[in-house]
Amino acid sequence: MSSVKAKVKSILISQPQPTGKCPYAVIKKKYNLKIDYRPFIHVEEISSIEFREQRISILNHDAVIFTSKHAMDHYFGMCEKLRIKVPDYTKYFCVSEAIAHYLQNFITFRKRKVFTGEQTFASLIPVMEKHSDSKFIYPCSDVLKNRVNKSLLESNLNYTMAQMYKVACSDLSDLADVKYDVLVFFSPTGIKSLFENFPDFVQGETRLAIFGPTTVKSVEDHGLRVDIKVPNKNAPSMSMALDQYIKEANKRRR
């Protein structure tokens, strides 16, 4: 945890503002904070030519793995670009119920063709292993394609990682003179965007709240200090970790 003692008055979360009920809104009201949302990265489509360069045939696969709505959008979008009709026998393996529900935007939903995990990729592996005779295609970004997926690697499944979109750094030049007490990051690409936009970034008393071990490593590789590391034994979620940290920091400085 951070050695910085300053009171927290403002937070920038490097994601789009959530819709519906939001735990950050509760924190904002509870501690009378300024909380802003700004995506540090965005998703871009790739062309059909770029996809073809991977020499992957979508129709050679009878099962699709979905871990995000972005992946689903770009999978069906690529099929449309390539003028491919997804066969009715295709099976869909979704990491969560919410992502499975999103399928209704693209197909006639039949539960016998849709299988779900319990929020994590690892929980989806046993479900897929019951269909070990299938050939799986995993639509993903350039970032995910270049990252080792341990759960898939250790399975005996027949799968293909297919890049169907790319993650790019957003233009944050308008934030050059804006200061926040806490910056919240969820991915190494967010850290990459921070330094692409602000190559001379100096942390000083700015606290960094970081989710996930790969993001933590990226922060440390850049010589920065991780003040709030999530998940931890007392806080499995970012909102919970922020609540606990702010409670202590602001109590000290009243």
What this model shows, in words?
With 254 residues, this protein is an alpha/beta fold. The chain has a domain at 44-168: 3-Layer(aba) Sandwich (Rossmann fold), CATH 3.40.50. 33% of the residues lie in helices and 22% in strands. The protein is built from 10 helices and 11 strands.
By DSSP, the count of extended strands is 11
**Which geometry do the CA atoms define?**
elongated
CATH topology annotation of the domain at 44-168? Rossmann fold
Strand content: 15-25%
Order of helices and strands: EHEEHEHEHEHEHHEEHEHEH
| Major beta sheet summary | 6 strands, mixed
CATH C-level name of the domain at 44-168: Alpha Beta
Radius of gyration: 21 Å
Under the CATH scheme, the architecture of the domain at 44-168 is: 3-Layer(aba) Sandwich
Would you tell me the structural class of the helices and strands?
alpha/beta
How many helices? 10
Q: How many angstroms separate the termini?
A: 20 Å
Poorly predicted sequence stretches spanning 5 or more consecutive residues: none
Helix share, percent = 25-40%
Average of pLDDT: 91
Order of strands in the sheet with most strands: 3-8-7-4-5-6
Care to give the gist of this entry?
With 254 residues, the chain is an alpha/beta fold.
List the helices and strands and how they pair.
Elements: E1 10-13, H1 23-31, E2 34-37, E3 41-45, H2 48-52, E4 63-66, H3 69-81, E5 91-94, H4 97-102, E6 114-116, H5 121-129, E7 135-141, H6 142-145, H7 150-154, E8 158-169, E9 182-185, H8 188-197, E10 207-211, H9 213-221, E11 228-230, H10 238-252
Parallel strand pairs: 1-2, 1-9, 4-5, 4-7, 5-6, 7-8, 9-10, 10-11
Antiparallel strand pairs: 3-8
Helix pairs in contact: 1-10, 8-9
